[in-house]
Predict the structure.
Amino acid sequence: MPCYRCGARQTDPVRGASPWKRGVRDESQVLICPDCQRLHDLDLDACGTCGSTALICRLGEVECRACGAVRMAHAESFAGSGAPPGLSAEVEAALNRVLGRA
Ligand SMILES: [Zn+2]
Ligand SMILES: [Zn+2]
């Protein structure tokens, strides 16, 4: 995965921790190269509890690595709640038409 901001490719880390930083932006996991980490307009998502940008995004959840707070990613918030509002009525109407009950 390249740097989300400048598109630089991550080189193989030379032993030890990679200088690249992981973050979440628009609820997507992104990587930030060492150069871009020095900028102050990274526009990363921040934890709503502690304000840290050390977040990881996975399976529709955004977890803060600083304080451990977990929240649902907005993009996934409807996935677990079944059909979106309005659909069940449409399905029911369609079924009624098929069954001749309209
Ligand atoms: Zn970069
Ligand atoms: Zn936090």
